[in-house]
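Internal ticket #5521
Category: modeling
Description: The requester needs a full-assembly model to guide mutagenesis choices. All entity lines are attached below as received. Residue total reported by intake: 886.
Assigned to: D.W.
Attached entities:
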Amino acid sequence: MTPELCEHCTFEIPLDWRYCPHCCHGLLCPNVRKAKDQAEKDALDQRYQAAVVDANSRGAGAVVQEFESHVLATKAVMGVTIGKLLPIAKGSQDLFATYYDLIDLKFLAESSDPIEWHTRRPQAEIELMGSDKHKNELYYACLSIDGTSLPHYGECTVVLAERMIGHRASLLSENSAVAYHRDHGFAPGHRATWADRAKLCVAKLASALSSTVQSYQFAKLLMKAGATSIEDEFVEIQILGDMTIKTAERVEIRSPKTPKASSAKRPRTRRGSKDEVLIQDYCRQQGVPCELK
Amino acid sequence: MRAVLSGRAAVALLNEGDVWQSMTYEAPEQLTPCHAAEAEVLLRNVHDLIWLDDVSIDEVRDRLADVVDTAEALDCVLYLLDGSLQPVTRDAVALEFEELAIWPEIVEQVESVLLASPLPSSADMIGAIDACTRTESSAAAKLFRQWQSLQSIVVAVFNAWLQIPLDKFGDTQQRTAIHGHLINYGVFATLVRSGLDASAVSATQLSLCSNSQFKRDVPNAVRITSAWVRLLGDVGWAAKSMPFGEFAAPPILLHLPSVRIKSGPFAHYVHLNLYHNRAYYFALELPSNTYGKSVRTQVLKFPTAIDLSAALQHIPNIAFTSLMIRAISAAALQRELLDPKPAAQRKLFLAHGLQVGNRSNYHIFDHVEVTGPTASFMSDNQGVMVSFLRDEIVFCSDELVFDEAVGDVSGKSIGETASFAPWRISVFGLRGPGNRTAFQRLGASAANEMSFKFVEPSLRLAEYSAADLELASNRIFDTMLEGNLPIVFFDELNAMIPQSDDFGLKKWLGPILNVQFRNHDARVIRILGGGASTSNETFVPPDLVVSEQSCFSVGLGLPPTIGGPLIRQHPLTVEKGKVQKTFWGRIRDMFGF
């Protein structure tokens, strides 16, 4: 990676610092700086140009162009369970959970997966940020055209406000832990800054776009839920730094199809029935629109 | 097998040797293998861990169900008490809580936390009860009412706990740790539920001190509980009979100097009726500067008799924006005030007695300084007529002179009740026969016949903040309670009563409707006026009246058969132009005005 100089004092700055150690001038987040590295940008440009040329040769240039314009309007979304979102909306737990906070029973239940997440995830994060210094501050979202999130992560979709995350977000063309597990690293041209997200998506998906693809199909192309979370296909967003409910521009809650289970000891048919309206109420108090679907 | 459980995470981790498994509340039959490192990560942000040794899987499963249900029940209770939530939200919570409120073991666990300290002033108990009532969650509603009624004892138990000398614990850290153990053991709740009955408290103490695990967890358990029980004996007898039933969360904190109390609407009226007890309470609102708005409230307790000078010794040369003396026998207060004491110790100001907002020209009472045996707040026997209109308060002045009184109360009726002072007279009637006129003339005739002076500032309620209006009306009630307003007129009461489902209104009306005095002590009559009612019951709904009252009802324009029994017994008909002075004459005779 090209050595980077502080804009203010012009001395060289280490990658894993968020402010200049020499003059304390604020710096871009390490993940963003990694994505902005010239070699990465050049590689992404090459992939993007190649994808466009290929699409034009197949007569799909217009579709790709339309897809690119749709991607520019995408949102960063997080799937969150009602149980996790409720304390956040309430403000009693101000911060969204990082991956490490989110290692919960669902994770344990999936621990028979071929991927050892608890080892792969930190390795991937070191690759994403250059060190493990900030791994406890990294949050994950995915890029969504239609504002939906992947169902494996919870019933709630938190749509993040671009102005709250754009400056600290980097993107990878797929699930970073899965990619790292497979390739032990990230090939050049597969990560991008928030501003370059359209290029990344075109580079990734242009080959799947033919002249017959309709615009309504773009959303599923960009984000597709698999049978398990490992099989999910999406463009991953890494966001460094804290997030609260005010980081969101809106919240959507999909009503669970079945009520929360209770113990046999005390059957409770209404367990969890309050949660949706509680979240909605607390979001209202925080000034964040919340819709029940 | 060992296990660690968390109600918040709804998970249990089981360990035997190198084998780790997890169990969820939702699927307790399914055990999922995991690693010790994962377990550490899983529970790193959880603060309600329970460690169990030598347990079976079934026991873990059973215990997990308990802790999760308890945690979620407590959450429900806290959500229900959250006044910032919308009614529809609280309704949903009430319905969910109802399923848990029927389980005594869950309630007991919830109470171990909920009854361990007084509810904060922000806790909306009334709203919680409303939500339970709306959703017909009867078990939940019953619990909240019970917790509301226990608050005075909670306060007593908690304050006694605070007064245990620190040396009994060792240091503050140990005190904090022991506090946690006592909550977990449900000791606070047990003491509260005992009603501070001496034998029950002793039994609790004995039970605790014979519990070896408790004694291991709580060093100095015997010394601490003994000190606690002794302190409870000092305050408990007064607290347990304190009536909180109809009113909001208790603002009263004993023996705590400079306690800030939320000035909710009429919250301090929880002190009403305390004259039944052997203790008297002074609630003193102390402005940070003499007339500033910042107010701190100090509650002082006087166990056997009112000793105003003792109160003043706590805070010498004090200037009150209001002397709020709650439920103290007016006669006793008067005796105290008039009892000759060195003036320097008795400097007392009732400053800006009825100042509303910034309109200093609307003072009703002059600045009164009580320094000697002859002084009183209302030395010239003033009366005030207060009309509560929908958006106005009208005080009638002595310029309103009517030579006609309306009504008649038979001498027989007066005679029958002469030994039982009526302290509420309701004036109501059908729409149209001149209720308001009759009411005004009733007041005017009182002024005329009894030489009362009336003052008439007319204030538009909408121009003032709720706090200012509350302050003003509180002072009317205060003065009334002190027996210095012989007759107080509340007109257009029915304008507010149709909203009687609103508990805020009940709190407003509570002091008017339910204030009690010993016979002849206070010598105050409240004349409640309003229109469009056909019976005393519809005029003053029975559910707003807490206790039995002595009451005259005056029905206007009603055939004798329409009104209730009281109306039939005491008919009053409008006879325009006819002056009936016997009414006030008899009242005067009866009350010795």
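Resolution: model delivered.
Comment from assignee: The first strand of chain B starts at residue 2 and ends at 6.
Ticket closed.
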